[in-house]
Design goal:
- The structure is a single chain.
- 18% of the residues are buried.
- The chain is globular and about 35 Å long.
- By secondary structure, the protein is α+β, with helices and mostly antiparallel strands.
- The two termini are 17 Å apart.
Length: 68
């Protein structure tokens, strides 16, 4: 089973972005989505696959913090 995670774009460099997952940052390819800095995205296997709302990011973080 694979897991996708929601994060906030904090920097864009061409088709790559630095994504903040609530304190942990990783690179992701943003070729498949039309996004800007401060947008929230769902990332799977190193690729942003969908733009999401901030509320989804907050709910996702709450679930992980509370252990589902």
């Amino acid at each position: 089973m694979c897991l996708a995670a929601i994060g906030k774009i904090i920097k864009i460099e061409g088709k790559d972005a630095i994504i903040d997952y609530g304190g942990i940052t990783k690179n992701a390819n943003i070729s498949f989505v039309d996004v800007s800095i401060d947008d929230y995205v769902l990332v799977h296997a190193g690729f942003a696959i969908q733009k999401v709302l901030k509320e989804d990011f907050d709910r996702n973080n709450d679930l992980f913090r509370d252990g589902f």
